[in-house]
Design brief:
CATH architecture: Up-down Bundle
Number of domains: 1
Structural class: mainly alpha
Largest sheet: none
Mean pLDDT: 94
CATH superfamily: 23S rRNA-intervening sequence
Number of helices: 4
Order of helices and strands: HHHH
C-alpha cells in the first residue's frame, strides 16, 4: 500500500489555499452583474485547486495523480477567467500579473510533485 500524504504539509496545497484566498479578495471588487457568472466560476475554480489536493492525498499515489490533474485543470481554467476579468477591466494588468505568476508557480510545483509520485 502506498504511503499517504498529509496535505496540510504540502507546499502545493498551501499555495493553492493562498490562490483561493486571493481570488476571494478579488471577487469583492467585481461588478454586481458578474458576481453570479464569472465570479462564481472563479470562486469554484480557485476552491477546487486545494480541495482536490486534499481529497487526493488520502488515495494511492496513482489516484492522487488523477486528483492533481483535476487541480491543475482548475488552475488553467482560473487563468483564463482572470484574463477575461482583465479584458473587461475588472482587474488591473498588475493584479493579473501577480495572480498569473502565482498560478504558474503552482502549476510548475504541482507537475514536479506529480512526477515524483510515479
Amino acid at each position: 500500500m502506498a504511503l499517504r500524504h498529509n496535505y496540510r504539509n504540502l507546499k502545493i496545497w498551501k499555495l493553492g489555499m493562498e490562490i483561493a484566498n486571493d481570488i476571494s479578495d478579488l471577487l469583492v471588487s467585481l461588478p454586481k452583474h458578474e458576481k453570479y457568472d464569472l465570479g462564481s466560476q472563479m470562486s469554484r475554480c480557485s476552491i477546487s485547486i486545494p480541495s482536490n489536493i486534499a481529497e487526493g492525498s488520502a488515495r494511492t499515489d496513482k489516484s492522487f495523480s488523477h486528483f492533481l490533474n483535476i487541480s491543475l485543470g482548475s488552475s488553467f481554467e482560473l487563468g483564463t477567467q482572470l484574463l477575461i476579468a482583465n479584458n473587461r477591466n475588472y482587474i488591473t494588468d498588475n493584479k493579473l500579473k501577480l495572480l498569473e505568476d502565482k498560478i504558474e508557480e503552482f502549476q510548475k510545483m504541482t507537475m514536479g510533485f506529480q512526477n515524483s509520485l510515479s
